[in-house]
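Q: Predict the assembly, please.
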Amino acid sequence: MTLCAETLTLALGGATILDSVSATFVPGRVTAVLGPNGAGKSTLLACLAGLRNADSGSVRLGGVARAAVPRRELARRIGFLPQEADVHWDIDVATLVALGRFPHRGRWGDSEVDRAAVARAMSATDCARFAGRIVNTLSGGERARVLLARVLAGEPQWLLADEPLANLDPAHQLDGLDCLRSVARAGAGVVVVLHDLNHAARVADDLLLMRGGRVVAQGPPDAVLTPALIAETYGVATHIGTTPDGQRFIVPTHREP
Amino acid sequence: MRAARFNLLLLLGLVAAMLLSLIAGKVWVPLSAWNQGDPRWLIIMELRAPRTVLAAVVGAGLGLSGAAMQGYLRNPLADPGLFGVSAGAALGAVVSLFFGYTASWFLPAFALTGAAASMALLALLVGRSGSLIVFTLAGVILSSVAGSMTALAISLAPTPFATSQIVTWLMGALTDRSWDDVAIALPIIGVGALLLAMTARALDTLTLGTSAARSMGVDPLRLQLLIVIGVGLCVGASVAAAGIIGFVGLMVPHLVRPFVGHRPSAVLVPSAIGGGLLLVLADSLVRAAPTVSELRLGIAMSMLGGPFFLVLLLRMRRGLA
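A: Predicted assembly structure:
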C-alpha cells in the first residue's frame, strides 16, 4: 500500500511553500527528503501526516484519499516524529513511550497487546535500560531514542520523521540511521527529512530532492546525488568519493555563484 | 498503584475533614449531640452540612479545573481564573447585587449567566484557531474587561449598602449557604467534571507538543471546546456559589504531583479530591478561628497562596542553581 502525494500545492501568507509536488512512497523502503532550508520538506511531511491540508492536490493512502480516512485510523497507520522535541512534564521514559499507544488504546486502560508493543518499541530503540528515568534528565541521544520509541509503540505502517538526527553526536546519528533502516526492513514505510547528504546516501533507498517547493529529482541515491543535481539544488560544488569499504561520501567544497 | 493508594488516602482525608467541619465552629457540636432531639441538630443539618458539602463540591471543581488548565496549557502556573470565566461570573453576581436582586436564586442565576456569556465570548474570540496563545490572550482580555466593569459597578453603586455588599461578596465565602445552593452547584459542577474527565488522555499526549498530539489523533478543536465548557461550568458554578476563591486550582495540582507523578491525566482525580479537602479544611478553620467577625474564605485562601508561591519559588531557584 503506497503513500502518494498528488500535485500538492500550498501557499502561506502569499508565499508558495509547495508547488505541485507529486511523489510516491513505498512500504519497506526508506525515502529521504532532501533540500535546502525553506524547500518545503517539513510542510510536505506535515501534509502527508495529515497535520496540514494543501490548497489543492491530495494525499492518498493505498488509493484512498487521506481526507476520507477517519482521524483515529489515520493516527494508527501514520506515525509522525516532529522536529519539536520538548517534553513538557517530568514523566518517565516508560510513560512517555506508552503515550504512543494513544490511537489504539480502548477506553479502559491498556491491554496486554499495548504493553507488548511498548516493550518491543523500547527494545528496538534500546531504551529499556533507562525505562524508569525522567525524560528531561536524559542526554540528547537517549532522548532522541525515547521519542522515536514513542512513535514505534504505535506500530504505524508509515513512519514520518522530521530531522530526527539534529543535535546528535556521530555515534547516535549512526544508531538513528540503523534504527530507521530496521523499521523499514520490518515492513513499514519510512519517510525522513534529512539535512546531511551523507546520512541520506547511507540510509535511503529512494531520495526526493526539493527546492523552492518543487521536486527537483526523485529516484535511487546513485541517480540523485550527482554533482550537477546537488549544485542545482543547494548552490554548492561537491566532491564525491568512496570510502575503502565502499560507502559514498559527499563533501561540499565551495559555493557556486 | 501508588497513585490509586494516594487517591484513596485523600478520599479518606476528605471524609474525615467533612466530619470535622460538621463538628467545628463557633459552637462545637460533639458527636454525642448528633440526634434529632438535640437543639444543635439543626445547626448541623441546616447550616453546617450544606456548607460542608458545598465547600467540598466547589473545592473539587476548582482543583479539577486547575489541573485540566495546567495540562491543557502545559504550564504549571495556569489557573482557572486566567480564563475570564470567574471574572465574568463575578460580574454577573455584582450586577444582581447592584440592582438589589438578592432573592435566593437571583444571584446564582446572574452569576451563571455571566459565566456563560464569557464562555461564549471566549469561544468566539478563539474561533477555530486552536492556538494556546490566542486562547490565553482571549482569557486575559475577558478577565480585565469584566474586572473593570465590576469596578465600575462598585463605584456607581446606588447605596453604600450595595457597595459594601458587593465588596464583601467579591471576597468569597461560604457563610450561610443552604441546600438550595448545593442543589444549583452540584449538578453543574458534576457535568463540568465529566467533560473534563473526557479530556484526560488527550491532555497526556499534549506533553509531546501540539503536532505530536494531533498526529496521534487528538482533535484540537474538540479538546478546546471540552476544556472551555468543562472549566466554564466548574468555575462558573463555583463563583456563583461562593464568590471568587483563588489559588485552589493553582495550588492543589502542585501539591499532589509529588505523589502521583506529572502525567496530566494522573493529576486530575487527586486534584479534585484534594481541592475539596483543602477548601473544607480552610472553611472549618475560618469558622472556628476566634475572630470577631468571620474571616472570609477567599481572603484566607489568598493569604495561603502567597507563602505557597514563595516556597515554590525558592524550590525552583534551588533547582536552577
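Chain B has a mean pLDDT of 88. Residues 17 and 170 of chain B are 26 Å apart (CA to CA).
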